[in-house]
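> example.struct
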């Protein structure tokens, strides 16, 4: 086991050096990691008098010297809550009812901003690692006051990309962009964007299948699976995220993106198919989705996921001069790993656990069998499937693709013999 761990650490350090030399500088990687670790949370609730919260959006503005800049917008969670992950700065929250479903605030639409009733703009000053719960935003009708200074309303790429139709051959999935997402997650969000995107126009007759990649991965990893998907019954959606980010930040984004698309399309359910670290992130999403969304999860599949974490990531956290933020979550015995094991998947969500192995090795060449086959999470699975294949190559395996299509067609396995 120690030989395997040492081998993984050596590979990680080699990749670090090569990636830094070609994609980014050591200092940029270090600075972005520190910024992510200093992030804070702004949260609260929105209430609508004489109305429901189905099409309510919450906006986050940041005060920048001479202007107010819109930095984020999210669909209100089904329980009326909202949450923004933020870096140090001065912020203003606002909310509105999107009466014409264009995800843009119109002055005739009911709205509110923090401090409106007191005839002021209540900015919230955020320093490092704070968790601020703000007073309720209560929407009673349209408002007639505007910000007295310059207002800049241009959302970032990862927000604008929600629901965008894209092709897997798009250049944003190239290896250099994927690498940037690991070593400089913030630069990835600004320059590449990523996001929850569709591979075809929305069709209400088809169940969305969300494909979630792992570390140093992209939606292209699922190309063989997607090429063999039953497109009469399913529509492929892909989550493309910077794999160096903290996993709770990614699951927050996925929750918001799906809530926004649910507002727009009203789909009743989605399938989730995840690979490697994507399976860990997806469990965090499922925890939140249970109380904050009004659509169902009709299938959850994890493929070769390090469910018990990775000793190599823990060694990286303890010994590497640069700690990629996602390593802190993937590390064995991390608080994140403990959290997802202390939560039990509801029985109404069909869960299928897929693992693979290589002969003569303790796992698939990347993740050990003991981590892929977490005992407590095995108990949640309807079925467990094993394949003789390498960690990434398993996604191209014809036998896996056939089995996955059977699972998607019948998540509860009612028509397939055990």
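> example.seq
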């Amino acid at each position: 086991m120690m030989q395997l761990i040492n081998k993984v650490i050596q590979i990680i350090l080699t990749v670090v050096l090569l990636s830094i030399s070609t994609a980014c500088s050591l200092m940029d990687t270090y600075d972005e990691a520190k910024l992510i670790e200093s992030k804070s949370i702004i949260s609260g609730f929105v209430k609508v008098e004489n109305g429901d919260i189905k099409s309510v959006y919450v906006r986050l503005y940041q005060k920048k010297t001479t202007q107010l800049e819109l930095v984020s917008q999210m669909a209100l969670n089904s329980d009326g809550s909202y949450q923004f992950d933020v870096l140090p700065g001065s912020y203003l929250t606002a909310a509105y009812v999107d009466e014409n479903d264009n995800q843009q605030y119109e002055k005739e639409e009911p709205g509110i901003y923090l401090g409106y009733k007191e005839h002021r703009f209540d900015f919230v000053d955020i320093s490092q690692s704070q968790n601020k719960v703000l007073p309720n935003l209560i929407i009673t009708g349209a408002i007639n006051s505007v910000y007295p200074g310059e207002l800049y309303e241009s959302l970032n790429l990862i927000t604008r990309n929600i629901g965008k139709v894209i092709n897997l051959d798009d250049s944003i999935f190239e290896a250099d962009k994927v690498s940037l997402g690991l070593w400089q997650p913030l630069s990835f969000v600004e320059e590449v964007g990523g996001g929850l995107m569709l591979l075809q126009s929305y069709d209400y007759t088809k169940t969305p299948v969300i494909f979630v990649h792992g570390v140093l991965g992209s939606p292209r990893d699922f190309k063989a699976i997607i090429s063999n998907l039953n497109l009469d019954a399913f529509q492929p959606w892909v989550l493309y995220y910077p794999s160096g980010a903290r996993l709770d930040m990614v699951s927050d984004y996925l929750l918001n993106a799906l809530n926004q698309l649910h507002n727009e399309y009203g789909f009743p359910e989605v399938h989730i198919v995840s690979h490697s670290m994507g399976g860990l992130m997806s469990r965090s999403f499922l925890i939140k989705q249970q109380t904050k969304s009004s659509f169902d999860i009709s299938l959850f599949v994890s493929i070769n996921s390090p469910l018990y974490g990775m000793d190599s990531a823990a060694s990286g956290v303890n010994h590497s001069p640069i700690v990629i933020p996602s390593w802190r979550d993937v590390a064995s015995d991390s608080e994140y790993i403990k959290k997802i094991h202390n939560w039990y998947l509801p029985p109404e969500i069909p869960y299928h656990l897929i693992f693979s192995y290589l002969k003569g090795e303790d796992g698939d060449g990347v993740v050990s069998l003991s981590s892929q086959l977490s005992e407590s999470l095995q108990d949640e699975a309807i079925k467990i499937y094993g394949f003789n294949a390498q960690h990434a190559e398993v996604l191209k395996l014809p036998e896996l693709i056939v089995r996955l299509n059977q699972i998607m067609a019948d998540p509860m396995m009612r028509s397939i013999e055990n």
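> remarks
DSSP finds 14 helices and 17 strands in the chain.
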